[in-house]
Amino acid sequence: MDFQYAPAPESRDVVDIRPSYGLFIDGEFTDGHGEPFKSIDPSNEETLAEIACADSADVDRAVKAARTAYDKVWGPMPGRERAKYLYRIARIVQERARELAVLESIDNGKPIRESRDVDVPLVAAHFFYYAGWADKLSYAGFGADPKALGVAGQVIPWNFPLLMLAWKIAPALACGNTVVLKPAETTPLTALAFAEICRQADLPPGVVNIVTGAGDTGRLLVGHDGIDKVAFTGSTDVGKQIARGVAGTDKKVTLELGGKAANVIFDDAPLDQAVEGIVNGIFFNQGHVCCAGSRLLVQESVAEELLARLKTRMATLRVGDPLDKNTDIGAINSAEQLQKIRMLSEVGEQEGAERWSPPCELPQRGFWFAPTVFTSVAQSHRIAREEIFGPVLSVLTFRTPAEAVEKANNTPYGLSAGVWTDKGSRILWMAERLRAGVIWANTFNKFDPASPFGGYKESGYGREGGRHGLEAYLDV
Ligand code: NAD
């Protein structure tokens, strides 16, 4: 049945975007000394605001502010007092949830349904969760009186701007560290709104500092002598550069990098549920997800039927205005990312895979890519090996469980995987053999602040979330 949808736009009136933004250092918004840059709305290419760029003097100022705050205020503060600030931040995030969700969708291009129902609630949940740990660190399994590391330099990507900020800042603060965080250059606005939230929560100046800028600012931050810890989420290439840069220093590092997850469908899986899981696995957040289920491995005997059902489902996906509450797939975050998705998709065709997208009309302005599936994919194809980071699914088949494991593990990455089957024993058998940090069974892309997240191999090292996530910010 074909449903007609009336437009259901979320109002932009709840956000107040200023024409320009400064850096957030020592509790104040200040000018940057680098060349300012623009943040645009990827759904229509309109400029949203001009953003200050931090140069080396600015980064230095931010690190010094964080050091002073660590030495004088935040480090000596008892955990139960730190917890109060974190709870307060969590509550303000909840109070301002609608505004933050709209702002995130405007700056990032993701559907409002996701920023409203996934990103922002998880941000609040993260702060609540780590607030709970702040006065219980002695019971976390890292010794009787674990100490903070000091100042953390944190660099995050553009795919979940505010959520990645929460993943970085909440555990760092709970453990007694202070932070300097650099958001991605295409999505700085919610980090700057978070700076306001820090002020609203009366967080002591210097505990959280936000420096905006591009890769150069990130390099200055992670290379700064005054930081004790580097936390990075982003591309594997930059992750490797950072790992080389900190080698031989005392800095502790956690890296959360790319992925090429296998989503494995056995012939006894409930196929309609699996189709929903596949769609959620690869089209959630336009596929800009490091743990996206970008390689579908389907058992040969059900491949034809599953693909037919998948295509029927894909034809119902609604691509368009991120602020429309009915939108399933929003805008691609940047022209560069769109270019990369297009390039790899063309390579897929050239290498002999079969490309299919449902008929779908894309808006004229902005950055858009139709949901796409490739069949007849070989393991050697670039679309089966490289992270596309877009709404593009590569389908391979297998005959036996052993072959499924071999193909799933045939990747330089190891962040996540999915298994769909009716048999509990098979789930456990697969989970033992899949080399991935997170394995979902009969579901996909489920996140909870209490559960650790992180990768094997080129997906990085260290864990974020849960009790394990504390370790990255403690001197253990
Ligand atoms: P990126 O690694 O270039 O950028 C991530 C962050 O690192 C940004 O804040 C950026 O400004 C900063 N950065 C860039 N160069 C740096 C350097 N030398 N030192 C310190 N910081 C630096 O990622 P990208 O360009 O946004 O995306 C490229 C590819 O990375 C994507 O296509 C995707 O495959 C992958 N990616 C993965 C994740 C993830 O969550 N694992 C997130 C975003 C992108």
Automatic annotation (TrEMBL):
Active site positions: 256
Alphabetized UniProt keyword annotations: Oxidoreductase
A GO term, aspect molecular function: oxidoreductase activity, acting on the aldehyde or oxo group of donors, NAD or NADP as acceptor
Pfam families: Aldedh (PF00171)
Domain Aldehyde dehydrogenase: 30-475
InterPro entries named among the record's database cross-references: Ald_DH/histidinol_DH, Ald_DH_C, Ald_DH_CS_GLU, Ald_DH_N, Aldehyde_DH_dom
Key word DNA-binding present: no
Family per record: Belongs to the aldehyde dehydrogenase family.
Name of the protein this chain belongs to: Aldehyde dehydrogenase family protein
